[in-house]
Amino acid sequence: MIARESLRWNGWGRLGESTQMTRSREAALLAELGRRLGRPLARGAEPVELDAIRLPPPKLAPDVLARLRAACGEDGVRTSAFERVTHAVGRSLPDLFRLRRGEIEAVPEAVVVPAEEGAVAAVLRIAAEANLAVVPFGGGSSVVGGVEPRTAAGQAGALSLDTTRLDRLLRLDPESRTATFQAGIDGPSLEAALAQRGYTLGHFPQSFEHSTLGGWIATRSVGQQSDGYGGIDELLVCARVVTPAGVIRTLDVPRAASGPELNQLLLGSEGVLGVIVEATVRIRPSAARPDERGMLFRCFAGGVAAVREVARAELPVAMMRLSDAAETELSLLLRHDPARRFDPTATALSLAERLGYGAGRCALLYGAESSDARKVSTTMRRARNLLARNGGLPLGRSPGRSWRRERFRTPYLRDWLLDHGVAVDTMETALPWARLEAGHDAVVCALRSAAATHAGSGLAMAHLSHSYLDGACLYFTVLYPVEAGREIEQWRAIKRDTSEAILAAGGTISHHHGIGVDHQPWMAREKGVLGVEALRAVKRAFDPSGVMNPGKLL
Amino acid sequence: MIARESLRWNGWGRLGESTQMTRSREAALLAELGRRLGRPLARGAEPVELDAIRLPPPKLAPDVLARLRAACGEDGVRTSAFERVTHAVGRSLPDLFRLRRGEIEAVPEAVVVPAEEGAVAAVLRIAAEANLAVVPFGGGSSVVGGVEPRTAAGQAGALSLDTTRLDRLLRLDPESRTATFQAGIDGPSLEAALAQRGYTLGHFPQSFEHSTLGGWIATRSVGQQSDGYGGIDELLVCARVVTPAGVIRTLDVPRAASGPELNQLLLGSEGVLGVIVEATVRIRPSAARPDERGMLFRCFAGGVAAVREVARAELPVAMMRLSDAAETELSLLLRHDPARRFDPTATALSLAERLGYGAGRCALLYGAESSDARKVSTTMRRARNLLARNGGLPLGRSPGRSWRRERFRTPYLRDWLLDHGVAVDTMETALPWARLEAGHDAVVCALRSAAATHAGSGLAMAHLSHSYLDGACLYFTVLYPVEAGREIEQWRAIKRDTSEAILAAGGTISHHHGIGVDHQPWMAREKGVLGVEALRAVKRAFDPSGVMNPGKLL
Lengths: 554, 554
Description:
With 554 residues, chain A is of the alpha+beta class. The first copy, chain A, has helices at 23-37, 62-72, 81-86, 93-101, 117-130, 187-196, 213-219, 226-229, 232-235, 263-266, 300-312, 325-335, 344-354, 373-389, 398-406, 410-419, 433-455, 487-504, 523-527, 529-542; strands at residues 77-78, 110-112, 133-137, 158-162, 169-173, 178-182, 199-200, 236-243, 246-249, 275-282, 284-285, 291-297, 319-323, 362-368, 393-396, 422-432, 459-467, 471-481.
């Protein structure tokens, strides 16, 4: 179960964890970033303490509380400031601004933590009768406002329904290689339960350590190795969802043609239809030895073409992540340690420069994993050959090793940069190969222009990840100086300009972050008015009185 | 465009095509089947002629006809007996009974054949105003009653909307490897258009020669090589659908997490939401040389375990089709030619018998195809080794060659057997590996029992096809003697008993045939009442007055 008291209430990840940079590296990085952003960077005002946040007193009537306690147990209904604040927001950039300023727009009246399906159903019933919204909350790592306790017009408040006590492995079917979990189980617990039995799900989103199976399903999540294992939509076999209208369950079969696939209504449903309480997923034998390596390309277009060749060859790689020139340069900057006398990376890079991999170069990280070591080595050899034939310069395993070491650490950097007045935001889309480079250029341009307009300066960059036969995901990062007191307005303006650029390029508003409240304004543009209306009709069927997660998605 | 006048109006496929058996083979086969079914088989009463079928006169008011003609052109509105009869049924066993007896339950008032999207929209508008149902009709090969011109209570009649003039390739994007077609294009035309440019879709359902892209999407079709290329659900990128409420279009991106995937509401929608007019699909370079081979297993369980190993190894095979002992024996019987002096198959089999591959043996056909010949040979070698290590006896390429020669011919046999008083019906499901063998046994048993009860005798058999990580499709065939005059009742009783057995085994009512009217009684059992209600809600959003294909699916 996620031990929320061991997590930072107003930032990413576990208490006591940090970027693990030395003082000298920190100083050098701040100096360099300050130079690029056109202003000196220094530690800003301290974030407020939890105690300092003024919360409205819970509005729940005693009989409602009593009924919730009867359903979830004494410990299953929580109204402390810690619980209400930690369940009030997710982990988007504006969420961090709100937490650090102690200005939270809405907090749940209470956090309910049901330990079984019946209790979930009871909570939905009580909420409907008491005119309360219910907001499903798993790991709380949403970066699109998916867990904000919003209420619909006329509702008296919101309950945050924390799923993390629903965390058991219910069945493992070694013949069919499927496992059935309660959906509130978090990533590490799920993988530990499978590893004990020799299996893995292979789903490692950036939020892996603090997100849940149910959350992955509700947001159509992908993991860092999803090129190999498939996104959560490909891993899901069937699910049980408690909706206000009753339980919906899909069938445990590998495929069906019995009308539209109901799993696909649950995938991406973001809690607006009901609470995912159980899911059966495809598992594979534990990967014996992952292999991840680096490669350099002379330019982004060349790297994209090479990655596309591997995708077209349908090689079973687990990941390909190609940084553009700006991201490649920034990640070298992040790794640079001025105290280190001999830097083998620097030596290798200056060598590479002489081969034409200098300014504009782009780094690719590619990897394979499987229980079959021979399959890994064959795949990696064939991928390397194909990539090298397409202009790649192999960098060996060292970039892969540092990536694996730090794969879940990057978000810690965001808090540290915020401490120093620098905001980091990320956006993502997917595009067909034919429009990928134009889309990359347009969105990076839009980010730079938005940062300059709304923040005075900024750095924008991107990487390609998650390749498909017909296209790939582009993941954008922007760094810009925060204007104290105008954090949310600044963020919103940059978000708006970038989202418009993504849609103008023909991309989706989200490849894997989801919609929540932040992307909701673009839903009708993407899905069409009629498409949104169809999803609303489904919602009315499952949730006639609008209890579930109002204001999100639709 | 499908030239319907070149097709048999009351049977499968093209005029002039046949089973291509010699007289002596026919006689031997009939004698042997008669022996097994416990009665001599002889040519029965001739099916009625088209002219002999009494059709109700079309009920369309002149102004409605005039408006339809204004929308679709003179040639686009057809009321001849040939057009009305050929658009009245699909190609299920009961459809063949109805056609042969000339007793068709419902015929469309007219067949409309729009040549562009605007005309489709106009037809839906005119139908709504004239209180008519619209039944989308592509190739008309539905085996579940998907194209019957049913009407809802109060509707004045039905129009069959033939999509086959919507048959153009609109765009081919070689970079993203996608192609956009009008959805009424038939299989051979689609593959020809792609082959000219060096590509293939790789979607070859049994009905390939007489089915359309739109029909594949509407029924969640799979093809014979879908283990490699993926089902139509994996090949579809985006679509345009004309619904009574307006056009819905999905986005041309490889993946999105912007809420539930709308493509998945269109896939399997069986014409109840609207008319699919356009679709973009993933294409691959033309396969250089397919390679298909045979293998024998000593028993079905052994074959299933071997196939499962290949599926688990995620080898890129294009097909694995494992017949059970009864199907293996019947297919040997079908191939047997008494006039042939030397039969190499017989020699090989008697050799195999000495190795323990005698009674109970099961034949596997497996194959790979790709534009990359080395990939094919590597895949086939690895598959052969894995299968052989799991008890398979390689039979070489000869079974593969005859399969490929006859891959689209099997349905012709059904008509010939019907001529001789033997009905052939097929049913299919998908099951997880852990329940696959029990499901196989239960459903084959149910088929045998149902045939004995309702037809006095029968032969039942199955094959496994379409493997997934967690399970596979089972495809059942039953042969039984037809009782003249009670054809439909007999069929319905056997269908009911078998469908119950499929659901009792935990299988889906359809892996790829769809729901139509024949499987509709089991929809709520499979999807749950709430699941069906959700799909009905979607239908109401797209088709508020119930114009589209009433009585199907939901």
